[in-house]
Amino acid sequence: MRHMFLGSLAAAALAATTANAATPMDLSIIDRAVADFTGATIGQPGGAKLPVDRRLRLASCNAPLDLQWFGRDQRSVQVACPTAGWRIYVAVDAGAGGGHGASPQYGQTLVKRGENVSILVRGSGFTLTRQGSAVEDGAQGEWIKVRATGQRTETLRAMVIRPGQVGIDLP
């Protein structure tokens, strides 16, 4: 009787695991995460070129997605799920800036005070990203104060890279 109970318990656990693994990832979550990461929506300069291919069947991710720039020219975003073990790459429109591939004009404000921004910290061989908000306005190439989400007292100085994105390069 005890073996039958343990066998039933094991079968129920396996069925729950299989059902969870069979539940595919909602790909619109990835689209939103990439838009938040890049600071631009799909089809906009600096954003994903296209939505994630809806034919993909990825296992549902039970942890926060890990997003990083991929490639020397940052033309792709690597999206990974550490718990499910998958990784995909989303092509990004390299025409970041003033719109439709045009370069922003000198002194044009790209980040406004209070705006949500992606804060990139880049070092030799890695890029970390954190969401935050701008404490002051800034044009491309200017250093502005930003505050990471969850941090209410400490500000950082970061360079404006493009609309909605600032960065700090480590030596």
UniProtKB/TrEMBL annotation:
Name of the protein in question: Flagella basal body P-ring formation protein FlgA SAF domain-containing protein
UniProt signal peptide: 1-21
Residues annotated as domain Flagella basal body P-ring formation protein FlgA SAF: 109-168
Keyword set, alphabetical order: Signal
GO biological process: bacterial-type flagellum assembly
